[in-house]
Amino acid sequence: MGKRRSSRELAVKFLYLCELNSGEWKEQLEQYWERNPCQKDIIRFSEGLLEKVFEHREHVDVLVQKFSDHFALSRMGVIDRNLLRLAVTEILYSQETPATVVINEAVEIAKRYGSDESPAFINGVLDKIKGEIEGGRVTTSPAS
């Protein structure tokens, strides 16, 4: 498994834990790395994504809600919800990796950690969002 996928998987697992635990996410992250030691470049990439997820979560959640056929975030599986948050954030705010690669990575992670329906659901939502971004109908601005 590649370092980027490892970083994304660790980020999704951390987001999952944040939903179960209360407290400041940065403090939890420090403890998370103590329990899950790994290479510095994996940590760096994962932390970069996580910072963006927490910074832009409100806007990203609106987009996920809108393009998941109004399937309530609270009714989504925890893995699906957080995998969508991570992937949408990476597509919109990182732009270091092509959207198609981010989507493929998210689908592969969904196969490993989600339900049987997760890969198709994740792919469908992300593909809609990608199309809207490419069409200029979705931007990094919350006003979109």
TrEMBL record:
<dbReference type="GO" id="GO:0006353">
    <property type="term" value="P:DNA-templated transcription termination"/>
</dbReference>
<comment type="similarity">
    <text>Belongs to the NusB family.</text>
</comment>
<keyword id="KW-0804">Transcription</keyword>
<feature type="domain" description="NusB/RsmB/TIM44">
    <location>
        <begin position="6"/>
        <end position="129"/>
    </location>
</feature>
<keyword id="KW-0805">Transcription regulation</keyword>
<dbReference type="InterPro" id="IPR035926">
    <property type="entry name" value="NusB-like_sf"/>
</dbReference>
<dbReference type="Pfam" id="PF01029">
    <property type="entry name" value="NusB"/>
</dbReference>
<comment type="function">
    <text>Involved in transcription antitermination. Required for transcription of ribosomal RNA (rRNA) genes. Binds specifically to the boxA antiterminator sequence of the ribosomal RNA (rrn) operons.</text>
</comment>
<keyword id="KW-0694">RNA-binding</keyword>
<dbReference type="GO" id="GO:0005829">
    <property type="term" value="C:cytosol"/>
</dbReference>
<dbReference type="InterPro" id="IPR011605">
    <property type="entry name" value="NusB_fam"/>
</dbReference>
<dbReference type="GO" id="GO:0031564">
    <property type="term" value="P:transcription antitermination"/>
</dbReference>
<keyword id="KW-0889">Transcription antitermination</keyword>
<dbReference type="GO" id="GO:0003723">
    <property type="term" value="F:RNA binding"/>
</dbReference>
<dbReference type="InterPro" id="IPR006027">
    <property type="entry name" value="NusB_RsmB_TIM44"/>
</dbReference>
<protein>
    <recommendedName>
        <fullName>Transcription antitermination protein NusB</fullName>
    </recommendedName>
</protein>
